[in-house]
Amino acid sequence: MSTTPQDAVCRWLEENLNWSGVQFLGPLSGGNSNLTWHFSSHEQSCVVRTTPDEAISPNSARGIERESKVLKLVQGVVKAPKLLAWCEDLNVMGRSFLVQEWIDGRSVTETLPNPDWDPISAANALGEDMMRQLSDVHSIAWPNEDLSTLGRPDNFVSRQVERWIAVRKDQSVRELPLFFELGSWLQSNMPETERPSLIHGDYHLDNTLVSTETPEIKAIIDWELATVGDPAMDVALALLFWGDKRASKPPAFAHLQGISRVAGVVDRRHLAAVWSDATGRSTDAMGYYIALAAWRLGAIVEGAYGLYVQGKVDTPYAAGLEHDVPALLAEAEQAAAGNW
After folding, report:
1. Which residues pair with 86 in a beta bridge?
2. What is the distance between the alpha carbons of residues 307 and 327, in angstroms, rounded to a whole number?
3. What would be the CATH architecture of the domain defined by 119-336?
4. What is the pLDDT of residue 2?
5. CA-CA distance, 65 to 140, in Å (whole number)?
6. Fewest CB within a 10 Å sphere: which of 27, 141, 257, 336?
7. What CA–CA distance (Å, rounded) separates 34 from 116?
8. Cβ-based neighbours of 162, under 8 Å, separated by 6 or more
9. Is 0.90 surpassed by the pTM of this model?
10. Which CATH number is 5-101 given?
């Protein structure tokens, strides 16, 4: 009799957490890398995060393990799901997984979770809360023994720029001269970095859970890219997707933080100031960091576009990168000019 991975997890939850009547309720929407499953028992619910069947990179499994470590680290400091268990026994379903607390909230992109909210005031409240919650993440600062297994902060920005220039030179599938021009600019104009801290690595509203009752964030999720680095990079990525001041129409990844593209919503500089006030950190170099965020994201997702060009994947997401990567580079060029 064959068994599914979800059946195996149900048995594991019953045997290891002493839950009864565990059922798989279905997958939850998420990013393009890992799987997110919803389970419930007679008493409670949980979320299981694991790598997809087709994952071939060992980095995928390491990302889930990293997420489990970060969830333990931020408990009591940051609004995040509580880690309930970590399983690295490959005999259960062939890959490791984490079990985390179920939080009843919604990821927000183009639609607010409550139709009765005023779209402008709700977007403003969520944007400001997004920055305040991020300031809590950045309060876990280096040096810190608990951060030592997550990465090394020395020369973090320069290593990122050098790495992605090298990757795109070696794995080019189309001409992107602006990418290399911006790479040179980023190398030549690197600001002096402030004190490193824990950083989320992929921070925007889509990676938070928002209350359906009031416009506030209940939890930050999807921590598999968390590391130790320059906190301004987290701020810059969130600001990149915020508001109408975008270099291309439609903008890259237009759905992300789509609620912010409404007349009357506060701008990027306002949100940057909220974070600065909460952390005491400067935003003087934020134009550089937004340029870096857009450029780096373009470098990363160009890899998925390469797989699409080679016929190895055929998804709307990968096909859309034909537009989204050049649009990200246009965003980077605009921010590098100080226009953010």
Report:
1. 98
2. 19
3. Alpha-Beta Complex (3.90)
4. 54
5. 19
6. 27
7. 33
8. 187
9. yes
10. 3.30.200.20
In angstroms, rounded to a whole number, what is the distance separating the alpha carbons of residues 299 and 167? 8
Q: How far apart are CA 185 and CA 183, in angstroms?
A: 5
Residue with tokens 């987290």: 234
127 vs 229: CA distance, rounded Å: 23
Give CATH 3.30.200.20 domain extents, the chain. 5-101
Both tokens of residue 104?
């009843």
Query: What are 23's strand-pairing partners?
Result: 40
Quote the pLDDT of residue 1. Answer: 45
| Cβ-contact 204, 297 below 8 angstroms | no
Comma-separated ranges of CATH 3.90.1200.10 domains in the chain: 119-336
SS3 101: strand
Could you read off the pLDDT of 309-321 as tens digits, one per residue? 999 999 999 999 9
Question: Using one digit for the tens of pLDDT, what is the confidence trace for 135-185?
Answer: 999 999 998 888 988 988 889 999 999 999 999 999 999 999 999 999 999
**pLDDT tens, position by position, 36-52:** 999 999 989 999 999 98
Give the chain's mean pLDDT: 94
Give the separation between CA 217 and CA 133, rounded to whole angstroms: 8
pLDDT digits (tens, 9 = 90+) for 78-123: 999 999 999 999 999 999 999 999 999 999 999 999 999 999 999 9
The β-bridge relationship of strands 197-199 and 227-229 is antiparallel
Cis omega (within 30 of 0) for bond into 231: no
Mean pLDDT computed over 225-245: 96
Give dist(CA 326, CA 340) in Å, integer: 18
What's the whole-number mean pLDDT along residues 184-198? 94
Bridge partners of 198, per DSSP, are: 228
